[in-house]
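PROTEIN DESIGN WORKSHEET
SECTION A - STRUCTURE
LENGTH: 231
C-ALPHA CELLS:
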C-alpha cells in the first residue's frame, strides 16, 4: 500500500475495524484508531488526520518534537507509544495527550513529578509485559493490581488503562491466547476503585494483528504500515 493511498487505506481499515468490533458485540465507534507514524513525514501524518484517524502515535521523542514543530498533529490527539527513557520524560509530558507506554512505577513517578511542576495532569496507560519477555519493558501481569494501587498515590497522573505488545507468533491461535489473557486482566482491573485510576482503554493490536485484538476486546489499536505503507 503506497503512502499516496493513505485515505483509501484508512477507509479500508475502518471497514475492517467495524467488522471486528461487530464480532465482539461492539460498534466501530468503540475502537480508537491510532496512526503509528514512526519514520513518516509530517505531510503523511497530516493526510492520515485528514482521512479521519482518531489519534497519532509516535515512538521516538526527537522525531515527535520535530514533527510537532511543523504542526503535523493539528486536528488529532497525540500519543507516545514507544519506549520512554527517563531522561526524555520532561520533553513528552504535556506535549502528548496520552503516554501509552508507562512500564514501571519509577517512570510513572517521574511523569507525575513533571506534570505537577507544570500544573497539569498527564493521562497514561500502564504497559503490561503480557508475554513475560525479558527483552521487553512493562509490568508483569501479576503486578498490575499493585501498580494501580501505587499509581493512585502519585499526583499528576491519570491512569486510563493498559497497553500491551504480545509476543509475535505465526499462528493466530497463540496470538489470541495472549490477547484473551490481556483482556481478562483488563476486565479484572476495570472494577477496582482507586483515585486517579479509571481503567477504560486497552491498547492492543497492530497492523498484522488488529482484527484479532479487537475481536478479543481491544478498544485501541496502533496501526502503521496498514495506513502508511511499508517503511
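SECTION B - SEQUENCE
RESIDUE ASSIGNMENT:
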Amino acid at each position: 500500500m503506497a503512502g499516496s493511498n493513505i485515505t483509501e487505506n484508512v477507509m479500508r481499515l475502518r471497514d475492517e475495524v467495524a467488522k471486528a468490533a461487530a464480532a465482539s458485540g461492539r460498534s466501530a465507534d468503540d475502537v480508537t484508531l491510532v496512526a503509528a507514524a514512526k519514520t513518516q513525514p509530517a505531510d503523511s501524518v497530516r493526510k492520515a488526520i485528514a482521512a479521519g484517524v482518531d489519534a497519532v502515535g509516535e515512538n521516538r521523542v526527537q522525531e515527535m518534537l520535530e514533527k510537532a514543530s511543523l504542526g503535523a498533529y493539528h486536528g488529532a490527539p497525540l500519543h507516545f507509544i514507544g519506549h520512554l527513557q527517563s531522561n526524555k520524560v520532561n520533553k513528552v509530558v504535556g506535549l502528548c495527550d496520552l503516554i501509552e507506554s508507562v512500564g514501571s512505577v519509577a517512570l510513572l513517578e517521574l511523569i507525575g513529578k513533571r506534570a505537577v511542576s507544570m500544573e497539569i495532569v498527564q493521562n497514561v496507560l500502564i504497559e503490561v509485559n503480557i508475554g513475560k519477555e525479558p527483552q521487553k519493558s512493562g509490568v508483569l501481569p501479576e503486578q498490575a493490581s499493585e501498580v494501580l494501587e501505587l499509581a493512585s498515590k502519585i499526583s499528576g497522573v491519570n491512569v486510563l488503562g493498559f497497553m500491551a505488545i504480545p509476543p509475535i507468533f505465526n499462528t493466530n491461535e497463540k496470538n489470541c491466547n495472549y490477547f484473551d489473557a490481556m483482556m481478562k486482566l483488563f476486565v479484572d482491573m476495570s472494577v477496582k476503585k482507586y483515585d486517579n485510576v479509571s481503567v477504560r482503554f486497552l491498547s492492543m493490536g497492530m497492523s498484522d494483528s488488529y482484527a484479532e485484538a479487537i475481536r478479543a476486546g481491544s478498544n485501541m489499536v496502533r496501526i502503521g504500515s496498514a495506513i502508511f505503507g511499508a517503511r
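SECTION C - NOTES
The longest strand covers residues 157-164.
The chain has one domain: 3-228.
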